[in-house]
Design a protein that fits this description.
alpha/beta; Spore Coat Polysaccharide Biosynthesis Protein SpsA, Chain A; single chain; 7-stranded mixed β-sheet
């Protein structure tokens, strides 16, 4: 398994790259990486081509995987599939960089679920009956199947939610006390009180 920090968004509402926000001593991307590193997994960062030079100032170039623009998809799915192309036989533990309140105990619970319930394609949380696809584990087999749908022109939407409908995910319900961990931040106004 490989751990992945998803940083490749456009951050248009924030107005600045969310992964490189540094309200404390570390960038949000580094904070997410620290949580994933606790699982003793190698950590990679998914970035788009416009971010590459900026991220090289903070992270080793060998850990940066640029979106593969030959794939006819966009959004987080493009990041996931680009990393899958680099590591086709490994499952991916993905975490979005804009969830700075995430706790390592939730990542550990995901890892445990993926080992206990092996007959599923993905393992993720459900928050008020909605999936949380940007804190999840995706099996190599599921990503390969999605990639084949993309190449065949049969993935009609590129949303993570639609992608989950094409595979067999295992859901863990989020407890009320855990909801704050899944909060993502999209504007400077939302950063108040962090």
């Amino acid at each position: 398994m490989v751990a992945l920090v998803l940083c490749g968004g456009q951050s248009t509402r924030m107005g600045t790259d969310k992964g490189l926000l540094q309200p404390n001593a570390k960038t949000w991307a580094a904070t997410a990486a620290d949580i994933l590193t606790e699982q003793n997994l190698p950590v990679q960062f998914s970035v788009n081509k416009n971010q590459l030079d900026y991220y090289k100032q903070f992270f080793s170039a060998t850990n940066l995987i640029v979106d593969d623009e030959t794939l006819a998809v966009h959004g987080p799915l493009l990041g996931l599939l680009s990393v899958h192309l680099r590591y086709p036989n490994k499952s991916i533990l993905a975490l979005a960089c804009d969830m700075p309140l995430m706790e390592s105990s939730l990542i550990k619970e995901l890892m445990t679920a993926s080992q206990q319930y092996e007959n599923f394609d993905a393992w993720l949380y459900k928050n008020n009956n909605q999936p949380e696809p940007l804190c999840a584990i995706y099996s190599a087999q599921a990503l390969a199947a999605i990639l084949q749908l993309v190449k065949a022109g049969k993935l009609y939407k590129y949303s993570m939610k639609f992608m989950l409908e094409q595979i067999n995910p295992f859901y863990i319900p989020i407890q009320e006390a855990q909801e704050k961990c899944f909060r993502n931040f999209n504007s400077h106004a939302e950063l108040n009180g962090l």
